[in-house]
């Protein structure tokens, strides 16, 4: 059985008191003792608050983005070294909001993935098609392009994958319209198969998360699918009770 993970992407939400409250709620539910790794992705400004609450526990945290240089004249940017300094183990890269609003291309995503790996972070790389691409029947083409951009960065020398992929259909993000378990499974199997073409060993072990309107009441059915190893949760990760329910469904 592959390891599983449930990650919460808080996006641009929350102030210090919210971060303390949410992290404490998760810890008091004993979630960090569950088999799936529970990871929080707060905004940069809340990484310190989360780390103060979660240090010494099995709960992990990460950044929602990074810049590829380690330091220098890049006003407003945050580097992998800075995230490591905040105790981050993970970093989200290529979230559809970054691809769409900030025009992040596949090349740029790959560049960031490389920087994350160099900094000793585990990238959680988001991929996914838009509603129009699905309607046009180009879902597989889009995913192939996005996955192939990062495939060469998977380390074939190791039998432990150095990155995680989150399949997040854009039409399912924040819409309340999750992909059905079967739809998600079909795409996850497609992605795993693409990776198998590169390394069958890594394909078996890589963690493939599903993201897009995961809630307490649909998580278990998604987690029951063969190729879904966990979830990247947006909106529901801001509601302690809902996030706790999702984590328990992954047990
Ligand atoms: C996300 O933004 O990564 C996400 C999956 O959002 P939501 O769960 O709100 O659809």
Description:
The structure is a single chain. This protein has 251 residues and is an alpha/beta fold. The chain has a single domain, classed as Alpha-Beta Barrel (TIM Barrel), CATH 3.20.20.70. The protein is 40% helix and 14% strand. It has helices spanning 16-28, 47-54, 80-85, 96-101, 106-119, 131-135, 139-150, 181-196, 200-205, 219-223, 240-249; strands spanning 5-9, 37-41, 60-63, 90-93, 122-127, 164-167, 208-211, 230-233. The protein has an eight-stranded parallel β-barrel with strand order 1-2-3-4-5-6-7-8, surrounded by five helices. The longest helix is centred in the C-terminal third of the chain and has 16 residues, at 181-196. The model has no long low-confidence stretch (mean pLDDT 96). The structure holds phosphoenolpyruvate. Phosphoenolpyruvate binds at residues 9, 168, 173-174, 211-214, 232-236.
Notable traits:
single chain, 251 residues, alpha/beta, TIM Barrel, 8-stranded parallel beta barrel, 11 helices, 8 strands, 40% helix, globular, binds phosphoenolpyruvate
Q: What order do the strands of the largest sheet run in, or round the barrel if closed?
A: 1-2-3-4-5-6-7-8
- Write out the distinct hetero groups bound to the structure: phosphoenolpyruvate
Which blocks of ≥5 consecutive residues have pLDDT under 50? none
Secondary structure: helix percent: 40-55%
> How would you classify the helix and strand content by structural class?
alpha/beta
Q: From the 3D coordinates, which CATH architecture would you assign?
A: Alpha-Beta Barrel
Shape: globular
Q: In percent, how much strand structure appears in the residues?
A: 5-15%
Query: What is the CATH superfamily?
Result: Aldolase class I
Subcellular location: Cytoplasm
Pfam families: TIM
GO molecular function: triose-phosphate isomerase activity
Keywords: Cytoplasm, Gluconeogenesis, Glycolysis, Isomerase
């Amino acid at each position: 059985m592959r390891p599983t993970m449930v990650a919460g992407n808080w996006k641009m939400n929350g102030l210090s008191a919210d971060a303390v409250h949410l992290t404490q709620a998760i810890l008091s539910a004993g979630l960090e003792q569950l088999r799936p790794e529970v990871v929080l992705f707060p905004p940069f400004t809340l990484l310190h608050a989360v780390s103060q609450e979660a240090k010494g526990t099995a709960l992990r945290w990460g950044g929602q983005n990074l810049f590829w240089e380690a330091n220098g004249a890049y006003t407003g940017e945050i580097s992998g070294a800075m995230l490591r300094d905040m105790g981050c183990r993970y970093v989200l890269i290529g979230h559809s909001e970054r691809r769409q609003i900030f025009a992040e291309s596949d090349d740029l995503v790959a560049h960031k993935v490389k920087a994350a790996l160099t900094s000793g972070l585990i990238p959680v790389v988001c991929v996914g098609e838009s509603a129009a691409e699905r309607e046009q029947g180009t879902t597989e083409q889009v995913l192939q392009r996005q996955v192939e951009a990062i495939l060469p960065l998977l380390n074939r020398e190791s039998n432990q994958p150095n990155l995680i992929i989150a399949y997040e259909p854009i039409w399912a993000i924040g819409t309340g319209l999750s992909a059905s378990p079967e739809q998600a499974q079909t795409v996850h199997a497609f992605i795993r198969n693409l990776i198998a073409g590169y390394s069958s060993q890594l394909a078996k072990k890589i963690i493939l998360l599903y993201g897009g309107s995961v809630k307490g009441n649909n998580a278990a059915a998604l987690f029951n699918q063969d190729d879904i190893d966990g979830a990247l949760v947006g909106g529901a990760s801001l509601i302690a009770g809902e996030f706790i329910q999702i984590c328990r469904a992954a047990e």
